[in-house]
Design goal:
Elements: E1 2-5, H1 6-11, H2 13-22, E2 27-32, E3 35-41, H3 69-79
Parallel strand pairs: 1-2
Antiparallel strand pairs: 2-3
Length: 80
């Protein structure tokens, strides 16, 4: 366990976080005027959820989805 003052924590936050991530420290105490006020600990890792494919299997495309393709293509060809 490491104890640092608020100013040191502010100036060395990245280093303190690396200490926790590496496992060198289990927790870090931040003190004001020598009195502990905050405890930093590493949160358990969680799996990143992919935003792609979240509806996989939830939506079925209709078989006749392309039934208007020729009509739409003809509309654009006429406008050229």
């Amino acid at each position: 366990m490491t104890q640092v003052n608020v100013l040191e924590a502010k100036n060395n936050l990245s280093r303190l976080i690396r200490l926790l991530e590496s496992g060198d420290e289990d927790n870090i105490i931040i003190a004001r005027d020598g009195v502990p006020i905050v405890q930093m600990t590493l949160l358990p890792r969680t799996e990143k959820k992919s935003i792609f494919g979240v509806a996989k299997g939830e939506f079925k495309c209709p078989d006749d989805i392309h039934y208007l393709d020729d009509e739409i293509a003809a509309m654009f060809e006429d406008s050229l």
